[in-house]
Hints:
CATH topology: Alkaline Phosphatase, subunit A
Number of domains: 1
CATH class: Alpha Beta
Shape: globular
Radius of gyration: 24 Å
Largest sheet: 9 strands, mixed
CATH architecture: 3-Layer(aba) Sandwich
Number of helices: 15
Amino acid sequence: MLDFRAQHTRRQFFGKMALGLGTAALSTLIREPLFGQASQRIDLSLPHFAPRAKRIIYLFQNGAPSHVDLFDYKPKLREWHGKQIPDELTGGKRFSTMTGNQVNRPVLSEISNFAQHGESGAWVSDFMPHTAEIVDDLCFVKSMYTEAVNHAPAITFFLTGSEMPGRPTMGSWLTYGLGTESQDLPAFVAMTSRDKEASCGQIFYDYYWGSGFLPSKFQGVKFRGGGDPVLYLSNPEGMTREMRRELLNDLSELNEINKSAFGDPEIETRIAQYEMAYKMQMSVPGLTDLSDEPQHILDMYGPDVTRQGTYAYNCLMARRLIERGVRFVQCMHAGWDQHRNLTYQLKTQCLDTDAPSAALVKDLKQRGLLEDTLVIWGGEFGRTPFLQGLIEDKRNWGRDHHPYVFTLWMAGGGVKQGLTYGASDEFGFNPVENPVHVHDFQATILHLLGIDHEQFTYKHQGRRYRLTDVHGNVVRDILG
């Protein structure tokens, strides 16, 4: 509050006061269901131009799927299998401590079989048969690259534009800038799942859906994998809904007194969150009641779809959330970190996630939602074309972290369909055609939502920050 006052002159105050009164008057004339929570937006000039997408579902695959085993077919790997990878590729490159000191780095051929699919002829592994069915709806980016070589910094970099925690995540930026259409659900929802065998030690940190230095009302609300989706959503025994309403009214009055006294914007957040929790007591039970879903839809998502906390359940829930006006849904699934179990765990991971991911795209398309909903599938980096371990020890074959090139795909929301963009070299080691940096990816996502990433900023500690830091170019060739 003090910082706000210090930055405004007397002339600016009177100049803006008339507009503020006019906006307040206008808001009273607009019906609340139509207005929604768009009033949460700080910058009412957004979007900067007509958006192609209105909402995002981000299927984040923690641990890094192996691009050379799933989407980036490289016959050269089979030809060089067991031979030392050329030194000119690995020289001067950073890898994790798993292989940083490994002297022998034999090339490891793909452990799956590849085939071309659809009219687009996209290459997909036989581990992903359901994804292969929808390739003509997908835009593959096979030239992604990043800077981090370890999981948490790399995930943080993708979601916030910085390897260090503390910046707002993409969902928080978009909620801050665009608001939400939902009256009784959060604008930004995060859900997590993991492989059934718990073979991967990936941890979900709260800052993966945090608001950083933005007001905390823009942080993601995590839906849990068991029990009430949100803690304390159910009233305790003996507490009626009417009693809860009276309690919140009194609590709101007390918070308003503190807000007037101290001017702390986080008190306003507290008031808003209490009210949202009250509304969610009515909206969430209907959201999670799958009795209205046709059986053929449930079958499409797979046998785990009705089991809370699974990837399949979260994918279906993502569709139901965006149908109800949620702006950003972040589904994070851990289990792709195959350092020593590539030969058996990769296929298991694909069995758990392939059908639900494809079903989500099909489901959105048949409901007319895919056109303005952007679906993103991908991890924080790829996996090395060379082997981690010994070539003789097939049971323990694995691949290390590989930030230098990898693949992700997108669908809907204004991206071209049936496109494979960019390419890696013959070993799948470096990009050789149309490289796409993480900041380029972020700039493109914002562009699809009608936002100029260079103009979308937030002033914090004397500096204007943005999701793309001071980098990034929109990848216009993938725009539909």
